[in-house]
Amino acid sequence: MFAATRAASFAAKRSFSTSAANLSKVAVLGAAGGIGQPLSLLLKENPHVSHLALYDIVNTPGVAADLSHINTNSKVTGHTAANDGLKAALEDAHVVVIPAGVPRKPGMTRDDLFNTNASIVQTLAQAAAKHCPKAHILIISNPVNSTVPIFAEVLKKAGVFDPKRLYGVTTLDVVRASRFVSEIKNKDPKDVKITVVGGHSGVTIVPLLSQSGFEFTKEELDALTHRIQFGGDEVVQAKDGAGSATLSMAFAGARFANSVLEATVGGKKGVIEPSFVKSDLYADQGIEYFSSNVELGPNGVEKIHGLGEISDYEKDLVQKCLVDLKKNIAKGESFGQ
């Protein structure tokens, strides 16, 4: 009853239509992991999803069986590496969400994950290029600054790269920023909208607090900026070696997936989310990917928004961001080529 009530509320709040024309298969790669399981649970509630295909190396049949008992309309299937499971999960997928990979541990940066996660993402990209070349690909696997370029290079080699349909999920940065600012200003987080641009790791994360409508002291700016940039470290340290952000990341990933579905099959106009995508904003400085607000439409990214007016403080943050971001992107492109 709880799931049915939640699903009904979910649909009502977003005014979803659920005709056969706007139902889609969604694949989650890495679905048995710490992010994958709660992410799949949230996607099971989305009335745009007709088939939820879960893939992981192990344990997905059990996760799928569990989720399949929830009384929403989507079918759930579980796939492993055996018996062409990845192919079965990907074929006919409209949206593919990828949280696969190893989590951060204390003392690790997202870049420390590169060697392991880069190979995982490359393998999944090769499979997606073959089995669902027109799907919308949502990459959560860290380091996003590098894994998105890896995926792009694999798709380019296969001749199926569409920059409008490849997204790095940076939504967690704006979710955190909204929460952290609301705590300081004693506001409801739903009323606190913070634009965050750049990348998805450390100093490449640039919150544009000057556009929030709030006033901050220099001390507040420094503290908030650092907390938004390194908020993931709080979770890693609090979990004491047991992993990194999973529940908040699942929430953010589901929000972005929901927005893509609303725009591509739900017919909703003016859907805007932040995302790390192929972008011209700083292409003149050799940076081909950048996260900013993007407007989504039936074919994916329709418009990439610029940064707008920013403060001198933020201009300095952007310049520091670009130095690291350029290196992160180059590392990913080199690996994927």
Account of the 3D structure:
It catalyses: (S)-malate + NAD(+) = oxaloacetate + NADH + H(+). This protein has 337 residues and is α/β, with parallel strands linked by helices. It has 2 domains: 2-11 and 18-168, 3-Layer(aba) Sandwich (Rossmann fold), CATH 3.40.50.720; 171-336, L-2-Hydroxyisocaproate Dehydrogenase, Chain A, domain 2. The chain is built from 11 helices and 11 strands. It has helices at 2-14, 36-44, 60-68, 85-90, 114-131, 144-158, 171-185, 218-229, 231-238, 247-264, 312-336, and strands at residues 24-29, 49-55, 75-79, 95-98, 136-139, 166-168, 196-198, 205-207, 271-278, 289-297, 300-304.
Helix content: 40-55%
Query: And the CATH topology of the largest domain?
Result: L-2-Hydroxyisocaproate Dehydrogenase, Chain A, domain 2
Widest sheet: strand ordering: 3-2-1-4-5-6
CATH 2nd-level architecture of the largest domain: Alpha-Beta Complex
Low-confidence stretches: 1-21
**How far is the N terminus from the C terminus?**
50 Å
Largest sheet, described in full? 6 strands, parallel
The number of helical elements comes to 11
Mean pLDDT, rounded to whole units?
Answer: 92
CATH class categorisation of the largest domain: Alpha Beta
CATH superfamily of the largest domain: Lactate dehydrogenase/glycoside hydrolase, family 4, C-terminal
| Range of strand content | 15-25%
**In the residues, how many domains can be counted?**
2
Order of helices and strands: HEHEHEHEHEHEHEEHHHEEEH
Basic shape? globular
Number of strands: 11
Based on CA atoms alone, the radius of gyration comes out at 19 Å
Assign the structural class, choosing from mainly alpha, mainly beta, alpha/beta, alpha+beta, or little secondary structure: alpha/beta
